[in-house]
User: What shape does this take?
Amino acid sequence: MSQDFLKNTKVLVCVGSGGVGKTTVAASVGVLAAKQGLKVLVLTIDPAKRLAQTLGIEGTNDVTKVPGQNFKGELWASVIDHKKTFDDFVERAAQKSEAVRRIFDNSLYKQLSTNLSGSQEFTSLEKLYSVYESGKFDLIILDTPPTKHALDFLKAPQKLSALFSEGVAKWFRDPEGKKSGILSHLIQAGTRQVLKVLETLTGSQFIRELGDFFINIEQWQGKLLQRTTEVQRMLVAPTTKFFLVTSFDQAKLKEAEYFSREIRKGGYNLDTVILNRVFPHWLDLRVGYEGGTAEQGLADLYMQMKTYYNHRDAIYRQFEKKMSIEARVLRIPDLVKDVSDLSGLEEISALITEEEKSK
Amino acid sequence: MKQEIHFVTGKGGVGKSVVAAALALKLSRQGKKVLLVELGDQSFFKDFFELADVTFHPQLIQPNLSLALWTGESCLREYAQYLVKVESLAKLFFDNAVMRAFINIAPGLPELAMLGKITSGPRKYGPPMPFDCVVVDAFATGHFKALMEAPAGMAQAVQIGPMGEQSRSIIRVLKDPEVSKYHIVSLPEELPLKESTELSEMLQKEFSVEPTLVMNKVLDVNIPRASLQNAESLTTSDLGLFAQYLEQQLDRQSQMMDQAKTKFKKILKVPLFFETNPWTLVEKAVEKLP
Assistant: This one.
């Protein structure tokens, strides 16, 4: 029954807060899928140097076939360049080169398209969708940008599309309501007061910049909203599955519980919760140290560590009991060493398979 | 005395919140009134310390130590009320659907509002901040960079008017080494150290400040190599494997420490504690801070 999640799955989104090992998990699942005979692409954000080397994507943003592989299927990888993805999107959507240049020159666009809240999430999904649309791969695995909270990722596109909604744009393009009729002029009396507050807070130049920004996006803002809807449809499709990657401490487990509730509410398919680096792979929690020739300091430290991990194991069991109704829970031990080659990824993918079988 | 601002950042998962809490607790024990601030929509400390709630308004959680959670919107709301004076007008502003959508995402605005609030004490601008120290449990490195770049970006985009002025005065405070202190938390591992180094270089270049590297979860053991190698042959339990693990970890750790020394002038070490109680963990970290 193993690898059920790969059946009828076209997109796999790995979410989780920063530093939990999302990229490594995404790449390992990619290996697993390639072994099953799928042509799979792993889209990553900011891989560690050695992982990037392993995947053959160091210093390039191209979609690259991972070197040195011998799988039944094919493993491909790519690093997402956010600025370029955003600019490419604008270029395609805006069509006229004059409009493209004007928006590229707008100082607010410059801030928006680099690394401000929400834009990395947008570009990740944009990249994912364009590959998805191309139909070149059986499976695409997306590694998501680091957020404080796993849920931020799902909220970001909606927030961004709110900014680009016609209601907001119209407002700033024509704050005085000059272009609309007398009726809307009357309605907008309250709105003008609101705008006055914004002006007190930010100044008239800022409002002008904003107006300029919204005038420049007029052409392609509709396309952006349409894109957001298409992306949303892809995310809730039954062929899209979510993996929540999390680390192993109490606060993170609470976050995972909260996340799984929210993801369900949003209509997404949470397939698996992966607890990463739960404890060193060699550690046998059941066996005690019987004393012997080792130095006391070493034996003490060993027992300390064991007690600590046994405590965590107890917390984990409670968590698994609660969660198992909603999703599969797998745990991957800490391999300690950095993953430095394809065999390292294979090792993790084997551990995932092993965990799955034991369920 | 001038108010001090301590920014604590680092790659996700390195334990920066615990370091921030320890730093705040340490300062509060020196008799200073300390505010520990979390940024964003979600509180880490709420779950971690099992608190009823963490809000925009500071709440006392230990003697001399208060905790608050600030979002861009809440900071902007307070700032608007302070500036507009008329509460009903401020309310009208924030109840407006367009404004609500806008302020959460407007390029640079939430970031600027948060930094404005954080630096409001030294700038003597806005509602009073009755604290000697503000310890900010800030965003992880990537988002932190964006936070720090927001005022310069805004000052450039909007040179005239309150936005430009505020941005410039915020930058002055961020650059003042007497007021703003930067702590980058890392682990003795490749990726966290790489991100820490990149951030430090950016802070040095753009703000002329010298951040402290806090090397967290350092294995603090004094077991001779010979004993480790000796233990590795043990087969009665996994103690032998533990010794092997320890040896590998210690090797990597010293390698990373050497690398860190070439990049940072100030390095602090916080050991790895096998501790499950949150307050005890923070207390233990406090002891290791200077």
The first helix of chain B runs from residue 16 to 29. Chain B has 13 helices and eight strands. Chain B touches chain A through 80 residues (CB under 8 Å).
